[in-house]
Specification:
This protein is an alpha/beta fold and 416 residues long. It contains 13 helices and 13 strands. α8 links the parallel β6 and β7. The relative contact order is 0.17. Keywords: Cell membrane, Membrane, Transferase, Transmembrane, Transmembrane helix. One of its GO terms (molecular function) is transferase activity.
């Protein structure tokens, strides 16, 4: 997987849920680790018994020369293969992590008023990259339902530098920019909405992580599914179980902000969709990545996108029947690497994981009321957008008064 030690990897290791790690563990992987330990031990034994014919004082020089030669040969072959794995890297990056100050959320004292009353449904996806969406020109039919719609707008050129959930979600759900440090005072989108007399409702299929647990707690209502499953079990609940939970909690009054947090397309892909959505074959057979072919990996991943298509279309169809003043925003927390440059999954510094999928749907009532916003949306999504957009776009939609936000970052605003 070509993973190197970084402050992000350390945060991921300390703060991710145990079941996420177990999805990467397999029998071949354990055998591989044991094999490496045996090889290392054997080399140690062999070296201790080795009796070179030349003088002892030359042994160190010979070993040092050989090591330096090997270092430069391998670095030429693959840049950073040794430098990024030196012991001091782990020490330096570990120091950065443990010295990092926790997120500080600024409080809002005054009650806020809004000019617009809109029901907002925010679907927070997981590990879905824009490139594999049929809506964005992908040649496979990964969006057979959504692609038939004329009322769905996809943001193709969306960027985030945050390639794993623990870092991306706090940035998406707050006023923090992708260019800001993570220890300054920031406003939570839920704190603003609560003060604007909105009902904030969180429905999730992921166990909350340390980095965004406080954000979830700011919601007025919280419903988590699959919190009692064993971390040793791969039989996890599917996102589809969130559909009825959402429908039962949907209210016709137009001051609700629903967050639906999916497990989405996170590895292990085969536990993310039901078998009837197994459209592309052959699929992956083992959690040990090197034992799967690239075709199998992409097939299984694309099947999760087909299931996402069904999931979002189901919600949109439900909202259409209500005919309320409603908008749905789907945004994945980050993308996914599918074999580019020999890398897989995410939480690595690669462009494939920095382009998450995003789409917008709005009701007929919303379209009639806010024609200017729709026109601005169609213009703005043609260019490059960052995940900064969500916080500012939501506040722009409801037109919060006497509270500062950046309309230039809103996809519904008139941007320069």
């Amino acid at each position: 997987m070509d993973i190197t030690i970084s402050v992000d990897l350390i945060q991921l290791s300390f703060e991710s849920k145990p079941d996420i790690f177990l999805d990467l563990i397999s029998v071949p992987f354990i055998i591989f680790l044991i094999f490496l330990l045996l090889v290392t031990f054997s080399i140690n034994i062999f070296y201790s018994k080795l009796n070179l014919t030349f003088k002892k004082r030359y042994k160190g020089l010979a070993l040092a020369g050989l090591s330096i030669l090997l270092f430069f040969i391998m670095e030429q072959k693959k840049h950073g293969v040794f430098k990024r794995r030196m012991p001091y890297i782990a020490i330096c990056e570990g120091t950065k992590y443990f010295n990092k100050e926790p997120l500080q959320y600024a409080s809002i004292q005054q009650n806020l008023k809004t000019n617009n009353k809109v029901n907002i449904v925010f679907v927070l996806g997981e590990s879905v990259r824009a490139k594999n969406m049929q809506l964005n020109g992908y040649q496979r039919e990964t969006n057979p339902l959504l692609s038939k719609r004329t009322d769905v707008s996809s943001i193709k050129n969306l960027y985030t530098p945050n390639t794993y959930t623990a870092k991306s979600v706090p940035q998406i759900l707050t006023s923090q920019s992708i260019n800001d440090s993570f220890n300054k005072d920031i406003y939570s989108i839920y704190a603003v909405l609560n003060k604007a007399n909105y009902n904030t409702i969180w429905m999730g299929n992921q166990t909350p992580e340390i980095s965004y647990r406080d954000l979830i707690q700011q919601n007025k209502e919280i419903k988590l599914i699959d919190v009692e499953h064993s971390v040793l079990s791969y039989n996890k609940k599917l996102d589809g179980e969130l559909l009825n939970i959402f429908k039962n909690r949907y209210k016709k009054d137009q001051t609700n902000f629903y967050t639906i947090h999916m497990i989405g397309s996170h590895w292990w892909y085969e536990s993310r969709y039901p078998k009837e959505f197994q459209k592309f074959k052959p699929i992956i057979k083992t959690k040990y990545l090197p034992s799967n072919t690239k075709v199998e990996m992409i097939n299984s991943y694309d099947n999760t996108i087909v299931y996402l298509d069904y999931f979002l279309n189901n919600i949109i169809s439900f909202l259409e029947k209500k005919d309320d003043n409603t908008i749905l925003i789907y945004l994945s927390d980050h993308g996914e690497i599918l074999g580019e440059d020999g890398k897989w999954l995410h939480a690595q510094d690669h462009e494939a994981s920095k382009n998450p999928a995003c789409l917008i749907w709005y009701s007929k009532t919303f379209k009639e009321k806010y024609k200017d916003k729709i026109n601005n949306l169609k213009m703005n999504i043609k260019g490059e957008v960052t995940t900064d957009f969500l916080y500012h776009s939501v506040l722009d939609i409801i037109d919060v008064q006497s509270f500062k936000y950046n309309t230039n970052k809103s996809i519904f605003g008139v941007n320069p």
